Amino acid sequence: MNSRFAQWAILGLTLTFLIGPFLIIIAAALSAGNNLAFPPQGYSLKWVIKVFEIESFRKSFGVSMLLAVFGTLAALVLGVPAAYALTRYRIPGAEPVRLVLSAPIIVPGIIVGLALLRYLVIPTGVTIMLALFLAHTALVLPYAVRVVSASMENLRTDIEEAAMLLGCSRTGAFLRVVVPNLRGGILAAFILGFVTSFNQVPVSLFLSGPGVRTLPIDMIAYMEINYDPSVAALSALLAFMSMAIVFAAERFLGFSRYV
Amino acid sequence: MSDFVSLERLTLAYGKTVAVEAMDLGIRKGELLALLGPSGCGKTTTMRAIAGLLTPKSGTIQLDGREMTHVPPSKREVGLVFQSYALFPHLTVFENVAFGLRLRRASDLVARVEAVLGTVGLQDLADRAPAELSGGQQQRVALARSLVMKPKVLLLDEPLSNLDARLRLEMRLELQRVQWETGVTMVFVTHDQSEALALADRIVVMRDGRVEQLGTPEDIYSQPVSGFVADFVGFETIRRDPNGDGALAWRPGAVVLGTGPFAGVIRGVSFAGEKNEYVLDSDLGVIRADAPVGFPTHAPGEAVAFDLPRDAAVRLERFD
Predict the structure, then answer these.
(1) Which candidate, A125, A145, B104, B161, has a CA 20 to 30 Å from the CA of B272?
(2) Could you give the ipTM of this predicted complex?
(3) Terminal CA-to-CA distance of chain A, rounded, Å?
(4) SS3 A172
(5) Can you give the pTM of this predicted structure?
């Protein structure tokens, strides 16, 4: 009886801890008051509407979207062949490569951001947008390689040979037979990469310039000046967007098999 | 008649490990040839080289009068049915079979795919995914996928080894029928001598990357050249010829029990329908002897005389 109660208590606390902040943000977003507060002062949708009227949010949302989509695509263009090579062949030096590919997960983002600013942006003068694109590509690459490698392991090697005997070149066999069978893994990697890139803070913190910053950084900047519920409204909207993506992925692809 | 496929001084290696050494082999048009040997003898490697999946270290491969040694697999017009079938999991049965024709943009694609699916008896399963098929059905898809391309040579890697006994017989008949109907030259790899004997027009027995013997099933079965081949085709007792440099070999049925100059002790016996199969320990080593039912029986532990009659032996050129 007692252990039963303890189990429910732990479950309840865990759920509260995981879901609580999200519920609070939703409530705060619907507030009719002028300050970010919980419990909310009355209910209205005005802050949700306000989010769409704030010019800098619209702009930084665009920046974040571009980065998430193209950074992840670039990471896949690099990562799928890398995963293929690492799983299919015994290459000398494969272990160091694997390690380097994992580095962006292990090295703290603050350090990556600072290093990119100090040793890429300042000396070479590349645009912030390009630096952000490169940084996000690198950050997403480990996920692309890992998730795609996992689904590559389940794929037989002889289907490529079969395709070649039926008239495909090596590259043709890769594109016609390997890639279609990895589509689940590739989509899963895309979603994981997209979310990782979109929510990325520490690296992007260092890489912001005139008129170019990602949405999370813009939200922090906004909050430093305006302490109104629009940030809560935006957070809630983003959370729903992420949930919709993951839900759709699970529904149509069985996303959880790959992650 | 000149050979349809000819391998000349073909040497194949994986890195520094030589798998096949200076092999010469001629394959005739329309024949069903078996590459027979234990694992590691180079039979699969030879087959992969004919398919173009392995570049020879030296030597040449010719197919239908054309030099093929460095032609990529996609341009060889050679089909290969993989041991694991290697079907494309993302495509239906129909699309698996149509794969090669689509690459060629064949205009009569649908008709040809349907015809070949009919040949292997899978017309009703055209819309299934490979994962929904049994092993035997998957193999038919793999066979159809190769046949539809009208290859000059069809290679089959251990075509019967993944099937159960009943399907094995069915597939054996199927392969013979397909060969008879299409006239395609077939080369199949097997480690199972009974498969090779039953199915092939000619058998190549391979050993350590070399051809040990090439001949018809009758040749191989009744006139093995060496102890190695004899052992492979069921000669259980092989001894050096005391009056020459060759060897003599006896099948279990040729060993006479109950009388003779040799002494043994019965280790075990098993009943096999028309005969009893004995295993004896003797000074000559372990001897297997079959005695027809009706002959006096012997119990384990019993001492028994036996004979290896010279006139019942097959002469081998080499002992090992």
Answers:
(1) B161
(2) 0.84
(3) 37
(4) helix
(5) 0.80
